[in-house]
Amino acid sequence: LQLDPQDAEVYSNMAGVLVGLGRVQEAEAAYRRGLALKPASGGISINFANLLIQSHRPQEAENIVCGALIHAPDNFILIATLGLCLMEQQKLEESVGLFQRSLQLHPLWTTYFNLGLALAELHRYTEAAQAFQSGLALNPGSVRLRTELAKIPAASGHAGAPGQEPIATNIGKVVPGQAEAGAEGHVALVGAGQRPLRVLVVDDVEEI
Q1: How many of the other CB atoms lie within 10 Å of CB of 20?
Q2: Do residues 207 and 42 touch, judged by C-beta distance below 8 A?
């Protein structure tokens, strides 16, 4: 920053380091400074929104993402992140539509995972199972996808992962922020209490 105090990406990178150190308030200030310098940055908006979601502030995250979508209306990760913001506010039908729109632009296993969770909460179990299975086609090794697929009620006709015995639902439980490597990079998981954990894409994505 001493070399170039107007470099938005430096603020964003610094914010990521601060998050890792648990200095959330300083990270938030750094993200805000980065966005002030580069309002059209999809990557900074996504990372900042993820931080707000993990801090249980989905309405604020929604505002950040909506501002970024003005500049990049077809950014599929911004759209999926907006779906997650609404999902955290229990606006499930709206979140389903956003996840589906994001998947039409570019399929990610993380988006299929969150779509499956939203559909399951709506008791649309057959569609939820199909979403988890589509995610597994992209990331066959995902414990998260297989665990959630195994929870689908047998009456839906889709219980369990393809070709495997049902998996106990206590497998792969994590605390918020714990990462799982997958086909699309690293992810973080958010959730509270007994609610299913959502997946955030945390790798930087700039102006897709």
Answers
A1: 10
A2: yes
92: its two tokens: 């499930």
Residues paired with 181 in a beta bridge = 186
Amino acid identity at 69: L
How far is residue 200's CA from residue 111's CA, in Å, rounded to a whole number? 9
Q: What is the pLDDT of residues 99-125, one digit of tens each?
A: 999 999 999 999 999 999 999 999 999
Q: Specify the pLDDT at position 198.
A: 65
Give the CA angle between residues 67, 72, 77 to the nearest 5°.
90
- Average pLDDT along the chain: 80
Residues 83, 66: contact at Cβ < 8 Å?
A: no
Question: What sign has the CA pseudo-torsion 112, 174, 182, 150?
Answer: negative
SS3 12: helix
Angle, vertex CA 138, rays to CA 133 and CA 180, nearest 5 = 95
Distance CA 139, CA 110 (A): 9
Interaxial angle between packed helices 42-54 and 24-37, expressed in degrees from 0 to 180 and rounded to the nearest 10? 150
pLDDT by residue (tens digit) across 137-165? 999 999 999 999 999 986 566 555 444 43
Residue 60, φ and ψ in degrees, nearest 5: -65, -40
